[in-house]
Amino acid sequence: MKIGWIGTGVMGAAMAGHLQNAGHELSVYNRTREKTAGLVAKGAQWAPSPAEVAAHSEIVFTIVGFPRDVEEVYLGKEGIFAAQGSCRIVVDMTTSTPSLAKTLEAAAQKRGMHSLDAPVSGGDIGAREATLAIMVGGRKAVFEEVLPLLEVFGSRISYMGEAGAGQHTKMANQILIAGTMVGVCESLLYAERQGLDQQAVIDIIGKGAAGSWSINNLGPRIVKGDYKSGFFVEHFVKDMGIALQEAAALNLSLPGLALVHQLYLAVKAHGYGRSATQALILALKALNGD
Amino acid sequence: MKIGWIGTGVMGAAMAGHLQNAGHELSVYNRTREKTAGLVAKGAQWAPSPAEVAAHSEIVFTIVGFPRDVEEVYLGKEGIFAAQGSCRIVVDMTTSTPSLAKTLEAAAQKRGMHSLDAPVSGGDIGAREATLAIMVGGRKAVFEEVLPLLEVFGSRISYMGEAGAGQHTKMANQILIAGTMVGVCESLLYAERQGLDQQAVIDIIGKGAAGSWSINNLGPRIVKGDYKSGFFVEHFVKDMGIALQEAAALNLSLPGLALVHQLYLAVKAHGYGRSATQALILALKALNGD
After folding, report:
1. Interface contact B210-A174, CB threshold 8 A
2. Could you say which of 3.90.79.10, 1.20.1250.20, 3.40.50.720, 3.50.50.60 is the CATH number of the domain covering A2-163?
3. Considering just the CA atoms, what is the radius of gyration of chain A in Å?
């Protein structure tokens, strides 16, 4: 199939590569062109704008940084919706706002197209190993049509409801991580201050009722002083900000999420925006005079 | 071996039962005598006080409710340390204060005895299936002597350091759970308010980077409206209170734990002290007008 791919960062490049390996013909665009080099070397066609990608594709996938980037890619002067051509379906995999997902679906429908919001979870490892979790919102029939393509890079794929439901599910995912991360970092800080062996603590508490992916995977990185591997703080701050806004729009108070968001703003303030989320412990240490 | 067992609640009765099945001779005491009936029916000897238990045992295990109960059982007029006899080792498995663990070790040594603090994790299921995690503080040689008995009801057993280190490790465990639980409950509340199918959300987010024992085991109980099965809110409030006190004694600020402690006080205030920890979502709903 002729597929367009916009956004070839660490995640996007790996995901698009799987589609390429599966035999699909790719048109690619990325703001920083060099990041498409790997895909182009394997036969992908570079396109100079999102509109040009869409003009050459039946389906376009996008995975970019922030909601404003999504807006630009879809609604900008050279955006996907400015294209002439045969593109029928667009799938945004960026973690973005549910309201923007609804806007894109409405804009797509006006053009006789369909839009899905399909944010992912699983990080660079999940993208590389094609084991991403994908949470999808939009029309069910469109989801079913796109599903075989999603299965090329995802291993757990759920249809969650109308446009925006994929993004809302991703927000639930990020709210869950927020609480878990403050637990992980405060727990390991407490252990260190009490003179315990942090790795021994992870080994015993990580397997029981306190256990989580985060304590077992990010905990050991804290022990080793690795604050680089993982999900960027600045993206997590963005996600929590969206979740808080969406909650506030429903008059929904989430005090835990609000606190963790504030703590991660402090992580950013300490210069760790491009560090991984386990850097939260560094801000907690700073709060405590270290 | 002649073993004493004090505290035959849901956890203690199951653990003592495993020792009995392994062929040990038990003396038992419990404030509410009826709760020893199952063990006595299988051959355990009822003793009218902790001192009497200790008088008939080489090793005494205790697992009671609150630190004040531990004090009574050990240091009271008819407590273990008032006993005459051959008791050499005491093991407190209650989740209690690290400072009390040190006091007990000092009191034990004065009497030529040894004390271990060995709180457990894994709940009623872990006690029944003999798969508890046990975190042990005290003298290493004493730990090694007692280890074969701990292995009768525990499957992951770690020596963590001097007296109090077992309790400190359990505090790290509870701090981790605190953060995780606020994530679980706020995430599922958000999902519900956004009209998502909560179980579908658990299914997709529980397996990835947001996953935890809590979302996968307690999340479905929330979906089913089961707020009874699990760990009592009032015990969790006690544990978080101890952790906060121990942290404050080191000038250690843990804002996440402090917030979750406050939220669980609200859970208690709503009358859910004897409900399970997933009842946190009920207090969050009340906070939001439900």
Report:
1. yes
2. 3.40.50.720
3. 20
Please give the C-alpha separations between residue B124 and each of B12, B13, B120, B189, B251, in angstroms, as whole numbers.
Answer: 9, 10, 11, 27, 35
Contact A204 B259 (CB under 8 A): no
Mean pLDDT, to the nearest integer, of B70-81? 97
What topology is assigned to A168-287 in CATH? N-(1-d-carboxylethyl)-l-norvaline Dehydrogenase; domain 2 (1.10.1040)
**From the centroid of its chain, how far is CA B190?**
31
A196 closest CB neighbour out of B172, B182, B250: B172
- A231 alpha carbon, distance to own chain's centre: 9
Best B177, B180, B267 residue to mutate vs chain A (most A CBs within 10 Å): B180
Q: Per-residue confidence at A79, pLDDT binned at 50, 70, 90?
A: very high
DSSP, collapsed to helix, strand or coil, labels residue B87 as: coil
**pLDDT per residue over A116-152, tens digit each?**
999 999 888 899 999 999 999 999 999 999 999 999 9
CA-CA-CA-CA torsion sign (B279, B281, B282, B286): positive
- Nearest by CB to residue B176, choosing from A133, A187, A217, is A187
Q: Known catalytic residues of B?
A: 170
Please pick, among A2, A42, A170, A285, the residue that the annotation labels catalytic: A170
Q: Is the distance from CB of A133 to CB of A213 less than 8 angstroms?
A: no
Q: How far is CA B206 from CA A175, A185, A247, B49, B212, in A?
A: 12, 20, 21, 47, 7
- If residue A92 lies in a helix (H) or strand (E), which one and from where to where? strand A89-92
Question: For residue A131, what are the contacts with CB-CB under 8 A and spacing of at least 6?
Answer: A122, A125, A154, A155, A156
**Which residue spans of chain A are classified as CATH 1.10.1040.10?**
168-287
Question: Is B250 in Cβ contact with A180 (below 8 Å)?
Answer: no
Q: Which residue matches tokens 């005090």?
A: A255
The span from the CA of A19 to the CA of B288, in Å, is: 45
The two three-digit tokens of residue B146, written as one number = 């007692």
Decide if B208 and A133 are in contact by the 8 Å CB cutoff.
yes
Rounded CA-CA distance A208/B177 in Å is 10
- Report in angstroms the alpha-carbon separations of A7 from A2, B64, B178: 17, 58, 37
Give start-end residues of each CATH 3.40.50.720 domain in chain A.
2-163
Residue A191, classed as helix, strand or coil, is: helix
Q: Which residues of A98-132 are buried (b: 16+ CB within 10 A; e: fewer)?
A: bbbbbbbbebbeeeebbbbbbbbbbbeebbbebbb
Contact (Cβ atoms closer than 8 angstroms) between residue A51 and residue A31 = no
Query: Considering chain B, what percentage of its residues have pLDDT values greater than 70?
Result: 100
Minimal-distance CA residue of chain B relative to A187 = B172
% residues pLDDT > 90 (chain A): 94
B195 token code pair = 């009209």
d(CA A115, CA A138): 7
Task: Specify the DSSP element, H or E, that contains A67.
Answer: helix A67-75
